[in-house]
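Consider the following input, taken from an annotated entry for Uracil phosphoribosyltransferase (Thalassobacillus hwangdonensis).
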Amino acid sequence: MGKVYVLDHPLIQHKLTYIRKKTTGTKEFRELVDEVAALMAFEITRDLPVEEVQIDTPVVEGAKAKMLSGKKIGLVPILRAGLGMVDGMLQLIPAAKVGHVGLYRDPETLQPVEYYVKLPSDIEERELIVLDPMLATGGSANEAIHSLKKRGARQIRLMCLVAAPEGVEAVQEEHPDVDIYLAAMDEKLNEKGYIVPGLGDAGDRLYGTK
Ligand code: PRP
Ligand code: URA
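Applying the prediction step yields:
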């Protein structure tokens, strides 16, 4: 079964509190999501392999140092709201390629509907990080992960800001090979499929729509 990591760092939790507040406006919301994504990038990349290299510093020649050992990363935001996490991630992983999966959740059935997929050509070689601020029923994340696997993806992680236990269980059940990274695990879903206490509709809050 996939592991669940809640990144309980004081800076992440502090910023997440402002993200949740209903008085936080679009500009500040977007900046904070960016900042939290960058902080989460730091944690989600903790286990990337490094190799020893030799470098010349201004003081000595042939000093031992470490560099990332070539693991290729791909970021896959689920449109729309996942886009809000891309720049923050790219600040720390600038060489990552970015694919996109477009899904929306039908408001009546809560089922995900796929409308767009564009991915790097070598996804089977990349460690893919699926980005979406919200993991509610898990339908969208599960569908996005299916879509990636169908096209050859082999290593996938899921990174969300806020999750409901129902969504985490759904992903663990359908994709036991996928580890999940969260800023917070919330209490539950309400009758409309919103995460409680949550932060509302992430896409609307990021882009000022309703
Ligand atoms: C939101 C959110 C997730 C999905 C989560 O997207 O960004 O993709 O809902 O819900 P689920 O776990 O129950 O599938 P939405 O469908 O509102 O689309 P948007 O990003 O375009 O606003
Ligand atoms: N999608 C959102 O944007 N927010 C929720 O709480 C649930 C699904």
